[in-house]
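Recap from last week: sequence in, structure out.
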Amino acid sequence: MGEQFTEFYYKTFDADRAQLAPLYRDNSMLTFEQKPFQGTATIISQLVDLPFKRIEHQVATVDAQPSNDQGGILVIVSGVLLVEEERRPMSYTQTFQLLPESGNYYVFNDIFRLVYPAA
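Predicted structure tokens:
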């Protein structure tokens, strides 16, 4: 489930971030580089308003495990981003807490962080 979700999420993000809205709910929370955003509209606005149009996620690792007795899934992803015409990859990590709802899953928590090289 973790790999299926990750593949769908990043293909959608890279093509049209606005199309991620069905994955979030009003109680969903995104922390993007230490800045918190809550609710579908606020989260999608943040993602759509990022200062780049073209992006490519290259996933390196996906780890997933059950997160609660109600069927939640914790997904941790690491990889690199290629933004616009820049071919110098930026490392990132992203963590998703997926919760079940009516036979599907939605993103309850989403934490994104760029990973900078140690100085």
